[in-house]
Each structure stands twice: as C-alpha cells, then as structure tokens.
Design a protein that fits this description.
Blueprint: H1 14-31, H2 36-43, H3 47-61, H4 66-79, H5 83-87, H6 91-98, H7 105-120, H8 129-135, H9 141-152, H10 161-170, H11 180-193, H12 199-212, H13 231-238, E1 284-296, E2 302-308, E3 319-320, E4 323-326, H14 332-347, E5 357-365, E6 369-379, E7 393-396, H15 398-403, H16 408-412
Helix pairs in contact: 1-12, 2-3, 3-4, 3-9, 8-9, 9-12, 10-11, 10-12
C-alpha cells in the first residue's frame, strides 16, 4: 500500500483550522465581490428557489469567466426565474440564450435536470450533495457541494480549480493536482476545513480567495487573509520550513503528495511552484469548409441560409451556415470541388465551382480542437428548399441570425 501523506501536508491542528476559518470568513465578509447570484442566494427566503439560482450560476461558471457570465445569468434569471419556468422552455430557447457562452451541452443538461425535478421529484430539489449528484444529470461532485452548502447549509466541502490552487499552496502539495489520488486528498481536506456554522460562505470564501488573491500568476500574498497558514509562502520566505521537515524530505517514504524528484522546488517561482499539473494535451487541428448562401429577401434585405446541427456531439442542436469537414492537406481548388459537390447533393441546385467565392479563413479554438473555417460565399437568385429529413434549415436576416442559437465561431464567420 502507498505510504500515507505526512502530517505536514494536512490540516490536523484544531486550533489552526479554527483560526483559518475565522480569518477567511472575516476577509470574505469585508472583501467579497458583489455578484448577482450571491445577492439572490442571500435574499431569497425559499430554499429551493435559492438552490436554483446557485445551480444556474455554478453551471454557467464552469469553464467560463465571471465577467462573461454576469450578463448571461441576469438574462437567464429574468427569462426563467424559477426551475418550473425553465422546465417549460424549449431547447431552442435555451440554446438561443446560451449562444456565445460555450460548452453548449451545459445548458441542455441544466434544462433536462429541471424537467426531471418537475416531473419526477414533485418540483422539489434534492437537499444533500449526495442526492443532488445522484439524481440530477449534469450535476457533478463540485456543483452538488456548492448547491448543498450555499442553499441548504450542508457542511460539505467543494473542490474546483481555485480551491485546488489554494489548498496545494497552503500545504505544499506538489504531486499532479489532476490525479485521482491528489483530488481525493483535496476533497478530504476541504471537508475537514469547511466551517460548520457557515458552510456556504466558507466555500465561497475559499473560491473567492483563489479567484482574486491566490491567482495562478503573481498572487497577492501580502493581501492573503490566511498567509500565516501557507507552507508555500513560508518556504519562499524562510527556505526549509521548521519545525516540520522539508517537503522534499518526506519523499523518502514515497509520499503521494510531494513534487516528483524530477521537478524540485524552483526558488524563483515561490508559491507558484504549486499546484503542479500534468502537461496539457494539444488540441487536434481540423478544417471545415463553410458556405454563406445569400439571397435577396422579400423586403430587399439580404437573407442567409442556416441549418441545424445534429442533436448530439459538438455544438449539438445549434444553427450554422452549411459546412463540410475537410481532409487535411487539400488544395484550395479541391476544397471548392468537394464543397460544390456537397451543396449540389444537398440542395439539388447546379452549384458551379466557379460560383464559390473565397472570403477568407476564421480560426476558433475549442477546448480540444483547433478549428479553421474556410469561408466561401455563394449568391443565389431564387429560393432553396431543402429536404427536412437531411437537416432543418431556414433563411434569416442578419438580425435574425444573431438572435438565433448560433455559436461564437459562426458569428465570427
């Protein structure tokens, strides 16, 4: 069996834990950001409505910055102020409001879960982190802990990217922070630290600390309310921490939380030695030919043809200009030919290769794909009626296009 982590990586002193809780909560009360979901959670007397407000914010905040989320959140809560209202919405409406926020499956799962609460749980949210995670699609361990602690007062911890960074620095945890063994230990630590009387505030304080002070680069250590508990800062200031042994010394026993021997402490990095992450996988490159079909509308304004993507996979259910994946290395003339063939088969129109005008290229980075759209335009004299069995399609004005459920990538196109 692997050796247990030495005490120096853990919080084992009750007096230190109590001091850390007090310092962090006092700082949070004084310095927390004024965010709409916090205001709603603090002023909403109904626990289930409070949970819904927190839930929406947590799903939106996954992989997305706070500044981007605020406007989307306000519009969402204005349109669907309750879980019941969301359950009655269509997926098309959800996608339209979510457009531009990215990771579109989040909105779809959120609505699916709302419908499940209404249809299978009599409209009542699960009250514990365990039940939230078990019963609601799209709700993982972190989201469940956030909802349960903030809305229902359950004394359960949370671990997100900000919390990982804070805890790894507080206790000099230098093993790969994405590994299951380290993540499990961080959850144990978060559950041990969470304040029993103010669990929601404590969890938000820990996340707020990581978001505003204990940031990835150039952390504001001088402003940190728990700096006296931070082993990484102590090591930066004083070298080998005393009286506990050096973090590298505990590697003798095969410590699962120490930095690997191949990546020793870099004194020039200070606290930003932690956390250590596995090397990111490079996104794969992909190329897509996209054709903007344009006609003159009945009022003289140009209209553009958009089609709906399949209901599963990347950008599921969103609308886009007719597009076709390209094999890597195709010459431009060959790209035109395959696109013209695709459009002919699809529309039944005699699309000439020479009629396709190359506009340029648009690059969009998804989390796992480096996507290049090769953009063509094709003006048409008449209507195009597509077979609905192939894919739903419609003609839209520029204004209608921007109001539709289209991705940020298509807006660039």
């Amino acid at each position: 069996a692997p050796a247990p982590p030495p005490a120096q990586h853990l919080f084992s002193d009750p007096a230190e834990i109590e001091a850390l809780r007090g310092n962090l909560l006092a700082w949070y009360d004084k310095c927390k950001r004024d965010l709409p979901w916090r205001t709603l959670a603090a002023t909403e007397p109904d626990a289930d409505r409070r949970a819904y407000a927190v839930w929406v914010s947590e799903i939106m905040l996954q992989q997305t910055q706070v500044a981007t989320v605020i406007d989307y959140y306000n519009r969402w809560m204005q349109k669907w102020p309750t879980l019941q209202a969301l359950a009655q919405a269509s997926l098309e409406e959800v996608n339209e409001l979510w457009a531009g926020l990215g990771y579109y499956s989040r909105g779809k799962r959120l609505q699916e879960a709302a419908r499940k609460v209404v249809s299978e749980l009599a409209g009542r949210m699960p009250r514990t982190a365990e039940d939230l995670q078990k019963l609601l699609p799209g709700v993982g361990r972190y989201t469940a802990g956030a909802i349960a602690s903030i809305s229902y007062g359950q004394a359960t911890g949370v671990v997100d990217g900000n919390v990982i960074r804070v805890l790894c620095r507080l206790r000099c945890i230098g093993a790969d922070s994405s590994s299951p063994a380290v993540i499990d230990r961080l959850w144990d630590m978060a559950n041990a630290l969470v304040d029993r009387s103010r669990p929601g505030d404590f969890n938000q304080a820990l996340m707020e600390l990581g978001a505003t002070v204990c940031v990835p680069k150039a952390p504001l250590c001088g402003e940190c309310p728990v700096k006296q508990h931070c082993r990484a800062r102590h090591r930066k200031l004083f070298g080998k921490p005393a009286p506990v042994p050096d973090v590298e010394d505990c590697g003798v026993g095969g410590c699962p939380l120490c930095p690997p021997a191949t990546e020793p402490w870099d004194s020039s990095l200070g606290v930003t030695n932690f956390p250590r992450k596995a090397a990111k996988k490079q996104p794969r490159a992909a190329r897509t030919a996209t054709c903007v079909l344009e006609r003159r509308g009945c009022h003289g304004a140009p209209e553009y043809l958009i089609v709906q993507r399949p209901s599963s996979g990347l950008l599921a259910g969103l609308w886009e200009f007719p597009s076709l994946p390209l094999a890597q290395g195709l010459q431009e003339e060959k790209q035109r030919e395959v696109l013209a063939d695709h459009l002919r088969a699809w529309t039944g129109w005699p699309v000439a290769v020479g009629g396709l005008r190359l506009i340029g290229e648009v690059i969009h980075i998804f989390s796992h794909i480096h996507q290049t759209y090769v953009v063509y335009s094709l003006p048409l004299d008449g209507d195009v009626t597509l077979d609905p069995a192939l894919s739903p399609s419609r003609w839209v004005t520029e204004e209608e296009f921007h109001a539709s459920a289209v991705s940020t990538a298509m807006k660039k196109v």
